[in-house]
TrEMBL record:
Keyword check for Cytoplasm: no
Residue ranges of the TM segments: 5-26, 32-53, 74-100, 112-132, 144-164, 170-193, 213-234, 263-284, 296-325, 331-352, 364-383, 389-412, 424-444, 456-480
Main location as per UniProt: membrane
Name of this protein: Polysaccharide biosynthesis C-terminal domain-containing protein
Amino acid sequence: MRRGLLLNLISNVVFFVSGYALHFFLGNTMPPAAYGVVGTIITVLDFEYMFVSNGARQSVASEISRKRYDFRDVVGKTLAFQLIVVAFFFCVNFLGAPLFGIVLNDATLDRYFRIAAFLVVVNGLQTVLLGVNDGLQRFGTSALLSTFYPIAKLGVIPLIIFVFRDDPVIGVEVGFLLAVVLTILLGCALLFVRRDSLPKRRSAADGVERIPFGYVATHTLSFSFFFIMVSLVLSVDTLIVKAVVEPASMAGYYTGAMNFGKIAYYLLQAFSTVILPVVAKLVGEGRRDAAVTRTGELLLIAFVFILPISVVVSASSGDLLAAFYSPSFDVAAATLSCLSFSNFFMGITVILNMVLNSFGSSRFSDVLSIVSLVVVIPVFIVSARTFGITGIAVASVTCTGLAMLVTFARTYRKVGNVMLRRTWIVLGANVVLWVLVHVTFVHFNVAGQLTLESGFTSLPVIAVLYAAIYVAYLAVLFAAKVITVQQLKVLGK
């Protein structure tokens, strides 16, 4: 598990970095109008991917890990329901392509959405493949596929340069399509090579029931609905800022803050990928106490290694934005300070909900999703209109913080105490860390002083300072034996 968690963290970092690299190329080589078309298509597809990605992946991983039903029956019925979902969205994109052109006032979108329809299909199939590997606890394979895919997407660059110079939008779509197909082929090949280790077919004679198709449908949709809520909470604020905050430049400042604020959430996704099948397997084996212990240990690791990233970014937000963009972005310093914690809180909320689902409690996630969608959007709009980008960031961290606390309370009642004493110590250490970093950067202007003395620009200097602070923080925790190498080894077994 330790290896799988590390590889999933690496794959998320690769996804994050390769995405920035690809958009840097597209934004600097494509005409603005064409790049706008790409952005429009990706935005629509991202919303559709919410229905065909996390829902099926988490559902099939959970059921395979619990071993309550026959492996092939679970995979077959999950795949069948997934095909129904992707068929619906294929028809929406392919048959509704002319309507997209009319609504978005661009007749050229017709053919692009017809091609994009096939992206939904292959993405849906890839998701099931990842979920199967997660359920089998082949986290290394899942991480390999999740790392291979964003790297393969960079194939868009030579396609646009050498093949689709006259129509780069199609080049982007073909590149994305080929990347998913290659990832699926690689995943299937890896499953075939290790086919002998797959669970054997079991039937009613073995005391194993067939999984009801209706249960597969509701379980998958429950996960999908939850992740739609998560995505909207983390993304709708940007659209609201664009719509209601003046001047227009504030949307750019908010986007800059959001780009750094999401780092913690991307990293915590690796934990949510691992924790569901691990805990579900222990619950399925009747080892409830072991599942609670493992959950507490994984949360400890998340707080030890991920929380300080949010803390350091929050405490030095003004210097980071000014160094990466320009001094004018300092106006979004308070915004980034809030968003860095907001995304961490949401990441922990996702992890805890995966734990609750492992214990067979999905209704809470459904209720949390409904309440969040009803409350968050109007609160964001009012906050943005009244207090601008700082106001909506404060609203964001408040909403996600409350969601996390409520989920912790539900987890305590349903599962047990998953907050170890050492986790509370880590929380206290991070409060001290925030104060020290804030005083260092804001009051003593260490980054600025070192920039003048070294002759380097402030961004490399800040990167070195961040690395030094992170290493020093971990050194203190290991020296105080809050976390030890032996504990990490035991956790990974």
